[in-house]
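U., I forgot to send this yesterday:
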Amino acid sequence: MNRGQYEIALEKLKRAVNADPAYAPAHTVLAVLYEQIREPELAEEHYRNALRIAPENGDVNNNFGVFLCQSGRTDDARAYFEKATNDPFYRTPAVAFANAGSCELQAGNLDKAENFLRQSLEYDAEFADALLAITRVSLLKGEHFRARAFLQRYEAAGSISADSLGLGYRIESGLNNTGAAEEYKDQLLFRFPNSEAATAIKSESP
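Result:
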């Protein structure tokens, strides 16, 4: 599947499920594959099969939460993210909290998003996904100095992306720091000229 050989992956995963219908990881990976090939109904069916087999499993609940969020079902997704973080054997609660926060952000629920993202950072203070998402939340709430602080933590962890440069540009522009804003803009247009962030900034230029 990672190589893009979806037909071969599908055949092997179907064989795995047929060999052991109660093997939750096979259902989960099959669900991910069906997402990849745009078969959402079959993806949901196998996610639910995995949950029937392992209803408390953090990985399964987190993955299904992401699927529901991408389908626009934020309230349903929230319940599964919370179940994931309640699994005492789940190794990456920071990921589930960050996914929950990003889902709430996507739905425009900024306070809920911030709450989940802060919990993610309590588990992993340098988790790039959570830092970038909470930077965006802070900016949308008009808290430019706080947004800058979170972005600086993201950058200090050695991360850089089109989104981070775009956020940096908007934060510094909001603080009327023209020089710093232009530096972010120049880096964005040089490093990621075809990104959505670059396209958005270019469309705003006179």
